[in-house]
Design brief:
Blueprint (H helix, E strand, L loop, with lengths): L17 H27 L4 H23 L2 H27 L20 H15 L3
Organism: Streptomyces pristinaespiralis
Protein name: Integral membrane protein
């Protein structure tokens, strides 16, 4: 359900301009992370459960951000902003952990080495998302 609109408050449209590119990128990352985590969990969960669970967490975060961007509205914008910040924290923590202690991750995650396996999109996407969401506020 759309948020009410008044003359003083315009609805927040998040899927315009750069927001459309963000929706596309987050959608692609959602599909990639879901595919990766499902395959890892079904194929050999026991070999690296932490890495496989973190890939699944990344998938959920990407899907939620995609949903909030498409939904639009001020509440969705705020939720997406919080999730982008949490995503960035996750990428930085997991990325640093995988660089400092690679043996802790026998299999890589979406966020391993700051998303190097995904051309560093996982570290760039939340920064770009936060910039867009701050600019798009109502």
């Amino acid at each position: 359900m759309a948020e009410p609109t008044t003359d003083a408050k315009r609805p927040v449209k998040l899927v315009t301009g750069p927001g459309l590119l963000l929706v596309w990128l987050y959608g692609v990352m959602s599909v990639g992370a879901v595919s990766r985590s499902v395959y890892q969990i079904l194929d050999d969960f026991g070999s690296a459960p932490l890495a496989h669970v973190l890939s699944a967490v990344a998938a959920v975060v990407y899907a939620f951000i995609t949903y909030t961007l498409v939904r639009g509205g001020e509440t969705a914008r705020k939720a997406a902003l919080v999730c982008c910040a949490a995503e960035l924290a996750g990428v930085l923590i997991v990325g640093t952990w995988t660089v400092l202690d690679p043996s802790a991750f026998p299999d890589s995650t979406v966020w391993s080495e700051y998303g190097m396996g995904y051309v560093f999109i996982p570290v760039l996407l939340p920064v770009t998302g936060m910039l867009w969401l701050r600019r798009a506020r109502g």
